Structure formats: structure tokens, C-alpha cells
User: Fold these one by one.
Assistant:
Number 1:
Amino acid sequence: MQPTNKYSIINGLIFSILIATVIGCNSNAEEKEKTEKAEKAAAVPSATVTFPLEKEDLSTAFHTPGELISFRNVDLYARETSFVKKIYADVGSEVKEGQLLVSMEAPELNSRLAGAESRAKAQEAAYIASKANYSRLVETSKTPGTISQNDLDQALARMDADYAQLQSAKASQKEVGASKNYLEIRAPFAGIITAKNISPGAYVGPAGKGSEFPLFTLQEQRKMRLVVSIPEAYVGYVTNQTEISFSVKAYPNQKFKAKVKRLAGVLDSRLRSERIEMDVFNNDKKLFPGMVAEVEIPLSSDVPSFVVPKTALVNSMERVFVVKVVDSKALWVDVKKGREMDSTVEIFSSNLQIKDQLVKKASEEVRNGSTLHTKLASL
């Protein structure tokens, strides 16, 4: 019985070893087959998706902040040293052109005017006397030998001098009289008083304590200016007929319209932008000077341009380019970037033509001159 059991155990071990060897060989064969398939798949290059270049009419909008200012704004000061007599307007008063705002009094002006009048009368009397003297000498000189020519010349010079003094005195009198008109301040245009810095009895004047601040600040608000600075890249899209829309924080759900009226025609040296102005009619006076507006300026061009997906444009440290496919070779083409809209961007280059094949998802990894296996992007 013992020899038989011994041989049975040995045979069982040999059989187990054979089975394990067969299983191991099968497993190695499967792993080798998988590796070969992966290597073959890696050896087959992936297809690069391309698209045909086309021109489109790209209409975009540029959003920028702007400032609303009054169409006309003036600070009113006293011309003559005087005292405020009566005030006819206050902050918020809507005034008409020529309306009286304040009257002032200056007692010394009456003395100056009286002195000017007396000097003018004295000069007038002197001129009348010298003129009469000259006329008598002329009549007398008609008798030969009675009056010398020298006496006539001196009398004429005296008369002319007195006439000049008379005209000077009259001018001084007129100047003092005109100064009295400056004691009344009137509105130079229709608008709203937005500031008042005086009270009755205040001392005001060009060199007085009251001249530190203006008497009134007058602003025209029924017509306003919207001032915007346009970056250099967009100045070519804006003309004096461009219509824009804007909104303000006070009325976020309301859109206002305006048309460009004035363009500076020069770039600011610091910001490299052009100042443009729009006229805004504000008859309901909802808009105030100083408001910040969110302005939307349409950027449209009559000439179609090349438009590509943003993924086709490569912005590297040294250049901006797209990858063009020529005879299955990658060719880097430098371009200039224009307007952007959602997922597309406008490009410019003299080395591109309609129907050129461009790589849709370009990057610097697609080396210039490398061979590409391409397929056209599905529409």
C-alpha cells in the first residue's frame, strides 16, 4: 500500500506543475498581444482637425465707462468790489437766459461816476474855449500882418490837445458807468443753479474775501455731453454718425441712445485713446452731470474680414500666429488680432487666402514644418 501512495503523490505534483506552466504561458501570451496592439495604436498618428478659412461680417460691441457732463457749465464771479444787496435765485432754481440772479451795491461807484462826469465837463469847457480862441485867430489872420503863423499853429495844437483830453474824460466816464452794470449778475444761458456761495450783505469782489468761491454755478442740463475715451485699436470703427447706447446705475433697466457728434482726432499721449463726445437730450432731467455711464459702442465694418475660432490662434511670447496646412506640412503664419466675439476672433494677414486650411486647435506643440495627418472639421 505504501509504494502505491508514494507514486500517486509524485504524479499529482507533476500534473500540478504542468498545469501551472500552461496557464503561465497563456497569460504571458495575452500580455504580449496587448502590448503589441498598444504599440501599433501609438504608431498610428492621430488626425489633426482643420477648417477652411472664410471671411465674415463681424459685428461686435465695445463696452466702456463714460462720464455725463453738462453741455455748458460756468462759475459766476463778481466783477466789482461790492456788497450783496438781493438774491433772486437759489440752488436748484431753473433760470432763463438773461434772468437777474443777484443785485449788489457799491457806494464808492457813485463817487467815481460823479468825479468822472465833472472831469468830462471840465475838459469839454476847456475844449470849447480853445476851439473858440482858434476860430477867432483864424478870422483875424485873414487881415495880413495881424496874426503870425506860429500863433495859429499853437492855437490849433491847443485845441487838438483839449479835444483829446475831452475824449479821454468821456471814455473814463463811460467806463465807470459800465461798471455799475456789473452790480447785476444775470444768467448767460438757460440752466439750473447747482451751487450758491453768497448771502445778503456778503462782501464780494475780484480781490475780496467773497471771491474765493463763485457766487453761483450755472449748468445746462436739458442737453448734456457724454464723454468717452476710445482705445487706439477701435478708433477706425467710430465716426460722427455712430449711434451708441448707454445705461446708468440709477436706471439699470433703461437704455438711453445718443449719436457721436465730436471726435478729438488725436490720441491722448498718456492713455493712447481718442476722446469722443455724444450729445444727450435730457428734457426730463433724469440724468445728472457726473453720472458714470456704461457705454456700448457698436464696432461694425463694411469690409468682411477673416474670422477664426479662438482655439486656432496661438499667442506665444514672441509672436501671434495660426497654423496653416500646406501639402500636409504645418506652416506658422503670423497674424494681427482684431475684434473678438464670443468664441471667434478677427485676424489680419497678407499670407492668408480664402479656403486655406487652418488647424482648429493650434498650439506651439504643432511644430513649424512638421508632417500632419489631417481631417476636415465637421460642420
Number 2:
Amino acid sequence: MKELLLNKIANKEIVVGVVGLGYVGLPLAVEKAKAGFQTIGFDVQNEKVDMVNAGKNYIGDVVDDDLSDLVKNGMLSATTDFSFIKDVDFVAICVPTPLDTHQQPDISYVKASSEAISKHLRKGTMVVLESSTYPGTTEELVRPILEEGSGLICGTDFYLGFSPERVDPGNAVYHTKNTPKVVGAIGKDATEVIAAMYRAVLDGDIHEVSSPAVAEMEKILENTYRNINIGLVNEICMLCEKMGISAWEVIDAAKTKPFGYQAFYPGPGLGGHCIPLDPYYLTWKAREYGFHTSMIENSMIINDKMPEYCVERCYKVLNKQKKAMSEAKILVLGVAYKNDIDDYRESPALKVIELLKAEDADVDFYDPYIPTYRYKGESYTGIKGIDPEVLQGYDLVVITTAHKSYDLEMIQKNSKAIFDTRNAMKDYFAYDNVELL
């Protein structure tokens, strides 16, 4: 099976399947098709499937013309019919792995996708899980489902591995094509073949590890490392505020050291599809072994309380104006979890808005990339734009996302008070109406 698949990869005879056409799946499907591999995208949402088949892009990291050209040329198509799994030689699972209401891993999408694939899995297929998850998912969950549903044997009839996605929406340098990839599979042959498949598509280095569990843990380490360091600077930020010291100035000074230090920055909380979630996956799995990840859990506590801390700071800013929170009209600038993207998954801005409203403030938001968002089952629509007249109508402007398109000078000149959680107003911090986190 190994030699057959390696030959098919070399001759670009592999048909690729990508399950889940979101921020990870669609860019991957586009790169596979651009590399010359016939690609089929699978998704349960008819809207996404219809848009792909119409050549209409909905993901920022995908070039519109690339998608439309691939669809027109017959290299990329999408479907909700999982029976077409029987036609593919390689299938990547790129579905969400959120947390449930109890902050525990929700692997229902991985489970459902694996079950759908298993019904149509045929001999000689490579299956790769790319969704971020806890160590052991590939071997303990996905493998039994695929074997039971298909009647095939992993390692003999099909190959199974894990290769964590590394997507950073809005990154101008690194994207799916050139970001290094880690591959861990069940067996050396599976690792070799799956790695060869990625090398045939991507420009980034492909790093092979000994097992799916190593690759799964590696992914969690990447994001837990960031979670812990952001928790550290958030705590330093809160202490600096009490001491009358600028945390931003402290960080700028510290990063002049050319070794032994990497700069991380405070903010209103963590957002995105990985950093706020992955540590919870690890702490949940660690309890199975009677192990408590105390450092990780402490950083999560700090980061999770940042929206509340930001609301406390809003109280202080309003108090300086002798304005009650319950009477305040507040504008939140930005609901995306990072600047210059339209992604608001796990955005701390949504929690900040919720908490401000819970204190009876009159809250509006403006985000040039996100006119409407859904949160806890409800839909919210922002104001259409900002100008001097609009800004002058608010008692407080809270910057929760530092989009580069903001006219910061105009905002400073026309706002009664500004609380900046992202250091966007660093060039204006000396003004009496600007306060930095």
C-alpha cells in the first residue's frame, strides 16, 4: 500500500477530500487543488457548499480568484454527500473542536465526521485529523470509529494520522502554503506516506514525529505556551496599573534584550479558535492521569477574568467624568478577536459588551469587518460607521480590537473618554481623554 500511494502522490493521481470548509479546511482544499490534486470539500452546511461550487469565497486567507479558477477548471468542488468519500485517497478532517458549556472538550464534530467517513472508507485511503484536540484523540476515538464503521484495519487497509492545523488569520507572512507542518501517524509507513502528501502540496517544512499523540500534544504546547505568557503579562498589567506604571512601556523596554525574552502583550482576554481552548483540552485530559496542570490553570484564570477587569477599568474612567455606568453611553470599537480580520470566534470583546450591558450601560459597537455577530444564540448589529458627530454622542469609547483602518487622531479629538485595551492609542496616551489598559 505504501509504494502504491507514494507513486500516486508523485503522479498527482491522489483524489483529496477535506471535511469541514471553514478557516482551516477551505484554505487547505484550495492549496491541495492548486498543487494539482483533484479535491472534494465536504461540509454539512449547504450555504458553504453552494458558495464554494459557485466560486464565491468567504474566508479571508483564500484568494478569490484562486477559488473561482479552481472551481471553473474542475479541480475543486464541494458536497454535503459523504458517500463521495469512496472516491478519495486522502481525507483531512478539519472540523471545529469547541468547549461545551462546562468548559470541557466538545469532540462531537470529530466523532460525527469520523462516523460519516467510516461508512464509505475504502482500502488504500489516508485519513488525517487536523482539528486541535487532546492527546489520544486520533488513536482512542477516531481509529475505533473508522475500523468499526468500515470493517477495515488501520495500518493494513488504511493509514491514519494527525497533523495539527497552524492557521493565523490575517498573517501577511505565514499562511497554509508556507507554514511548517507536523505529522504523526500510526506506524512508520503511514507517517512516511502522509508526510509525502503534504510535501507535495506545501512549501513549509514537514516535521515527522513518532505518533499522533506527540503531534496532538505539540499543538497544545504551542498554544498553551502563548496562553501562559499572555496570562503573565496580563497579571503584570494589573499590577502596573496599581503601581502607576505603564505596562506597555515596561514591555517595550524588556524586549530590547536580544536573548532570553519574547514579548507578549496584555489585552481584554483571549480570542480565536486555539489559544483560549487548547489549554482546557490539556487540563481535562491530565485529570485522567490524576495530574493537575496548576501553572496552566492559573494562567487561564487570569486570562478569563480580563473582560471583567476591563469593565472595572471602564468604571474608573467614567468616574473621572462623574458619570454613572448605568447612565453611560458606550461605544465598543472592534469585535474581531484580532486586528484586520472578520473572525470573532471566542473574541473577548463579546464578553466585554455583555458585561457592560449587565451593568445597565447603553452599549453600541462598530467593527469595519463585522457588521453583525451572533453570541449565545442572539444576533447583534453594530452602527454603520464613526465620525466626529457619532463619537461625540458617547461618554466612553472602548477599543477592544486595534484595526488599522481606524482614524485614531479623529477618534482622540472627538471622544470624551477612551479606554484602549490594545495600545492602539500609544501615540496619544498623553492626552487627558486617553487611558491605556
